[in-house]
Write a structure and sequence with these properties.
The chain is mainly β. Helix content is about 0%, strand content about 55%. A hairpin with a 6-residue loop joins β4 and β5 (about 45-50).
């Protein structure tokens, strides 16, 4: 069984920074993809950034240059460093793990950016 636990959300003013962490546990493939998604009220969940087990990354256009995804495979943790936050970044942020055709989600952590 795979479990994902996010932490690090909170409230910040526009222009500020937050760092999210996602600790994953269970039976983990050596080849997997991890991602951060977000969902604002009334909106669909959308991909923010993803990272493969080998380190290749992918970012949504709306976070390029501001957010950085990274992972520590030894610590079973993936991170999302969020800089120059904007009010439109306000959302629930979810960690995702994909392996062996399965997709797993964390419970989410709330990020609120005030103007």
């Amino acid at each position: 069984q795979v479990q994902l636990v996010e932490s690090g959300g909170g409230s910040v003013q526009a222009g500020g920074s937050l760092s999210l962490s996602c600790a994953y546990s269970g039976t983990i493939s050596a080849s997997n993809a991890m991602g951060w998604y977000r969902q604002a009220p009334g909106e669909q969940r959308e991909l923010v950034a993803s990272i493969l087990s080998g380190g290749s990354t992918n970012y949504a256009d709306f976070v390029k240059g501001r957010f950085t995804i990274s992972r520590d495979n030894a610590k079973h943790t993936v991170y999302l460093q969020m800089n120059i936050l904007k009010p439109e970044d306000t959302a629930d942020y979810y960690c995702n793990l994909r392996q062996w055709g399965q997709s797993y989600w964390g419970q989410g952590t709330q990020v609120t950016v005030s103007s």
